[in-house]
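Hey L., structure's done. Input below.
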Amino acid sequence: MRRMILTCSLIALVGCVPHTATVKPAPIKNSEPAPTWQNAELTEEQQLAATASVRELLKDPDSATFSGLYGAKRIDGEGPLVVCGYVNAKNSYGGYVGKKRFFALPNMAGLWDDNPKYGFSSDNEMIKDVCIRR
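Output:
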């Protein structure tokens, strides 16, 4: 009987001890990276230079039609203006392939690759980073 009273007393006393553990708040996760690009005005000269760069990549450059052109520049002001948009042109079989996203810099351009070799395309990554607005 003494043992039972002693056990009950200890359980009662342990229940009276204040809880001192602190709960740390969960870190705030920012699912979207901070934007590094912003829209920019395009001159006709910049549009012509961009479309000329893209035409160099196509099988039938004379068949190319462009749409949705807009400019993007880095927020910090570094680097050149990037022209983004869509191009539709004929393939080697003479059929139109449908609108493809592109980016163009003053001396180079890249097209969206639906089936990138090795599962990765640096052109696709550039287009995702600069041209696709969330």
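The helical segments are 2-15, 44-55, 122-131. The radius of gyration is 30 Å.

-- N.
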